Structure formats: structure tokens, C-alpha cells
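for the writeup, i need someone to sanity check this before i put it in the appendix. the sequnce is what the collaborator sent (i think, or maybe the updated version? ugh). structure was predicted straight from it, no edits. if anything looks off just tell me and ill rerun, i have time this weekend
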Amino acid sequence: MSPDELDRIFAALSLAVRREILDAVEAHPGARVRDIADRFPISRVAVMRHLRLLEEAGLLTSEKQGRERRLYFNPVPIQALRDEWTRRYASFWSERMADLKSRIEADADASADTRGPASREDIADAG
């Protein structure tokens, strides 16, 4: 996913009204633009502008049926975004966890070396 694609997706999702529009379209696949516009207390022109940005980000698709345009939610960009960031941060944490494990094991080995072998009296006292 290119940086421009990421920017478009994040910009499209940056406003609550756009996320609400996505939720409405996802809940009602094939909704008409008019149906979506009627749900929001903003002008139809403003809704159309939000729809255009969501479509440019690939989050919505539309198909023209006669004089109406039907809207569909496209989860692919969100899934791609999730996959890329999950992969990136999973790698980040796995490297740090491996490093932490190595350090803990090295400290445990160093502590065992300084104590020396346990005597029979130590074992008897412990048990």
C-alpha cells in the first residue's frame, strides 16, 4: 500500500460523519445516495462531498442504476491497512520480546554461576 493510499484512507476516516456514512452504507448495501443523505443533518451537497472522498479512498463503491446511484461498502482498504500495520507492529514487538527473553535467560545463567552448585545441606534446608 503506497503512502498516498494510506493518506487518502486516513483522511477519509478522519471525520466522524464519514465513519457514520460508512457504517450506514455497510448496514444497508445498495443504499441510494438520497437514503444516506436523509440520515444526516447536513446538506445533500455536503454528503455528496463526503461520499466522493470515501469513494476516492476506495472505501465505497457505487454503481449507477438508471438515475440513481447505489452505494456499497468496500472493506478491502481497511483490511489492507490492518494487515500492513499488524505485520509491522507484530514484527516490532516480536523482536523486542526475543531480546527481553535473551536478557532474562542471560541474567538467570549469570545468577546460577555466582551461586555455584547447591550443596546437600542447601537442598535439605530447602526441602
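The first helix runs from residue 3 to 13. Strands lie at 31-32, 60-65, 68-73.
thx in advance!!
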